[in-house]
Amino acid sequence: MNFVWLDPAPWIAGFGVLTPAGYGVDTLLSSRQPGRPPGDEITLEIGAPLGDSASGYRRVDRYGMLGLAAARGALSAAGVDPPPTVDASWGVMFGSSLGCWESCARFHDDLRHRPIAEMSPALFARTAASAVTRDVSLAFHLGGPTETFVSGWTAGVDAVVAAGGTLADGGAERMLAGGIEAPGHRFRRLHVTARRRAGSEWLPGSLAEAAACVVLAMNEVPGAHRLRSYWRGHDSQERWSLGEALSALQPLAIRTIIVANSTPPGLLARWRDESGGRPIIDLPGRSGELGAAGSITAIAMTCSLDGDSALVVARGTEGDIKALALSR
Amino acid sequence: MSRRRVVVTGMGALSAAGAGVEAFWRACVDARAALQPDFHDRFGASQQSPVGMFTGTLPRDQEKASALALAASAEALKSARLEPARLPSLGIALGSCLGGALDAFAWLDELRGDDDAVRVPFPASGGVASPAFDLAAEYDVKGPVISISSACSSSLGAIAQAAACIRRGEADRMLAGGVDALTPFVVAGFRAMGALTSTRVRPFDRRRDGLALGEGAGMLVLEERSQASDRGAPIRAELLGFGSASDAQSGNPPAQAANGLVRAMAAAFKDAGRGPESVDFVSAQGTGTRHGDHVELLAIKSTFGNESKRIAVNSSKPIVGHTLGAAAALSAILCVKVLEHGLIPPMLNHEEADSDCDLDCVGDRARQSPVHCALVLASGFASHNAALLLGRP
Question: Could you count the other beta carbons within 10 Å of the beta carbon of residue B164?
């Protein structure tokens, strides 16, 4: 299995995570019981514990607000101030499976019910999936490399991989990399209803609201984990082998595996057999499905664990599978 | 260790000019607009604005964006002399603004406010990534599948991510590009923004008054150079460097708004290890909007200085319209053809240069001129700027 090794490997300087369980990953690690997802909405007052919304910037929908909150949390945890003026050495990349679904749905509804002269150009601008990346770059003056990924539930992995690769190649000194899902109440209700009616026996939980972000840096952060290696591929026949992955990552002595997205029970059982006795944390079982935010949340969880190293496995649409390896 | 080099070995294009790269290239060289005012009412935006629809035949059972991407990909693979059945290490990187969102909107429409009507689950990935996954299924892809949506620079980002996969050894061969299909959603949005022309698309012209929307797909086969050589592949161009940058500021005067694109170009030159003096041709975003063209003009002049008068500039937007997620990939394809033929297409409708536009906007007819290095520019309204450098192989 051909893992790509980042050299030099970026440090994970800090992270911010918002899930329906609360702020941070401790809530997911300690207060939630497996099999009991905490619901699918973030009930935190987003502005309160994490600071006010970005000054001077308006018209941010929930998609943008969640992204800003996660980014602000990551910067705060990293103990770094965002640049005071536009800085090309800072970049930002986000991933989302659904993008700004709520704004898209609102604009689509307007299209059916309003004349074009009454439709909002500001709302249309919010329908771009990249709106959150823009929000964060504007709020924190991040003028460097930028990209927005929408590769389903693994889009967060793509954001981290691209950000890490950019750093390793010397394209920036610090990058924010995040994943976000803001599906909206109506969508979640209808989606789950539809899945049940379609006869799905496997319902790990509806897609939850979630936002997670990490600060990746090239300057040494003592004691911090580093993004070492990754693998991305398509596996429509579900033959991807955790055992082969662990062999390829032998130099890192992986201690823990975190499954970031919903995985069929049979496949999960096989991975347990291949894990060599290492603990496997099934993140969706604790949190509900976090979509593109799942892999970033799993990275944050890795940084919170006592163990030195972990493998994050994200499984997405139609056989899409991606993995990230981290160690101190 | 030297960096793995990335080359273009195949290309495919569908646009209002028709099916195939040659149809697109000939329309550009002949300065033949493929925009059609007659189709305008289809999108419910009653104004005199042309659109660039692809009117060729596509499979009826596929969502249109996927069908466009699949057709362009088939052409690209064929021109790269690759058998679709023998592509074990292929990866996909596809950019799009809305992707297969028509399916998602159809799902919404089906509800009509009645939750009990919901029978079918929401389309995977919200529909945006569905063309990428349809490509993966079509070619039984085992490599990475990456979907990008960064407004109008989406496909340049996809090409860059695909190149990064090859450089780092993640894949030896990637199918990369972009796609977008015209929808009432998009036409209404640009209409609401007041961005559509009521006349013609006139990039960098004094009388420009807006853009025309189009649809299409542009796909490129990217390969690691030595492996492409070993299999005797047609090496069409080399991907030299890429850069992206956020504006990171809003509501600025044009001079400041240009800084994001300037930074993207600087990053591309740094990545390529060469400077602006190496560029002979720029395929500009050139949508024909008053603000957008002005900002791009300032960015080009800031980057190239006095050299900007020497460099030939073109935009294909007057020919096929602004194809959004496909636009930059089509520009990249245009650049490869320019590098191959040493022939620079004219800028249709550029008749009277704006007062501060002293760029060499090639007028009237195509110009024969050797081109060694070409630059593609793209900027999205979500503050994404991107630049790609292509060179002769």
Answer: 22
